[in-house]
Design goal:
single chain; mainly alpha; Arc Repressor Mutant, subunit A; 3-stranded antiparallel sheet; 3 strands; elongated
Length: 289
């Protein structure tokens, strides 16, 4: 007589009446591996804020994230959160409103969204992440056989590159103004209004326009291209989306990021064409955006 396996129930967690499920497909994904320990803790902090009905409207501020992690390094926490968004594990649905004291609201992509009679299935964007693909922060690269690749880090580190250095390098300038230029294909546009026209330097000389002009320029780009542009610009400039949002709302931006943000803006709206973009939008001043 053969042995009959008993149909015993699986071991269950003593959840005390409240729990949140994290799928094994996420825990074993390449995105989860690349996220890092700090980012994983932030995802779990968002899971703790999930009530079972509020996915897509999970509110949490960077201060509350610091409290949940027991670490008030807001800069590192912001970068880890931006990385989770970039990997497709988390999506920012509503931006912060500092005047009303409202925090950003997020969606966990591995949980369905919406009311009971209109549920939208989980989207699982993180599944498309491939560990071998090129990082999105590297938004342009020289493809000439005789020249080495150029990255944002190399520029902001203090290398001196002139317009002649890019001539014949194979970098093609994007001319499609109706669609966001794809990452990795657009060229630097040397149309900055002052300073050293032919060179980009790191440190204090990296930003060739004032912070106020850069803020208005960035707001104009976001207003011109609409939803999703702010997130794409943060990726192109290799800065966190929360840092860019704070800058657009009047906060400061570290000098090490100003040059890369200026170059990202020039890819979408050339500096000397700002007035025409404002006229198309019917805006007299970008500060009113």
């Amino acid at each position: 007589m053969g042995f009959k396996r008993s149909h015993e129930p699986p071991q269950r967690c003593d959840h005390g009446g409240s729990y949140v499920s994290v799928p094994r497909s996420l825990l074993s994904s390449a995105a989860w591996i690349d996220l890092g320990s700090r980012g994983r803790c932030i995802v779990l902090a968002l899971c703790a804020r999930f009530s079972g009905y509020n996915n897509g409207a999970i509110p949490i501020s960077i201060e509350e994230i610091g409290q949940a992690l027991g670490n008030q390094n807001h800069g590192a926490n912001s970068k880890a959160l931006a990385r989770a968004i970039d990997l497709g594990i988390v999506e920012c649905m509503v931006d912060a409103n500092h005047h009303q004291g409202r925090a950003r609201e997020y969606r966990l992509t591995f949980i369905e969204t919406g009311p009971p009679k209109a549920r939208v299935p989980a989207t699982h964007e993180y599944r498309s992440h491939n560990r071998t693909r090129e990082k999105k922060g590297q938004f342009f690269a020289a493809q000439s056989a005789g020249k080495s690749d150029v990255s944002t880090a190399e520029i902001t580190a203090g290398s001196k590159l002139s317009a002649e250095d890019f001539a014949g390098s194979g970098i093609m300038e994007s001319s499609n103004l109706g669609v966001l230029p794809p990452v990795g294909t657009s060229a630097l546009i040397f149309n900055h209004p002052c300073g050293s026209q032919g060179h980009i330097r790191g440190g204090r000389e990296a930003a060739l326009v004032s912070p106020g002009d850069l803020r208005e320029w960035t707001r104009l780009v976001v207003a011109s291209y609409g939803h999703g542009t702010q997130r794409q610009m943060a990726r192109d400039a290799a800065i966190s989306e929360p840092s860019l949002s704070k800058f657009l709302h009047g906060r400061g931006l570290p000098e090490r990021h100003r040059a890369s943000l200026q170059m990202a803006c020039s890819r979408y709206v050339p500096y000397d064409q700002r007035e025409s973009y404002r006229e198309d939008l019917g805006i007299a001043n970008a500060a009113t955006i």
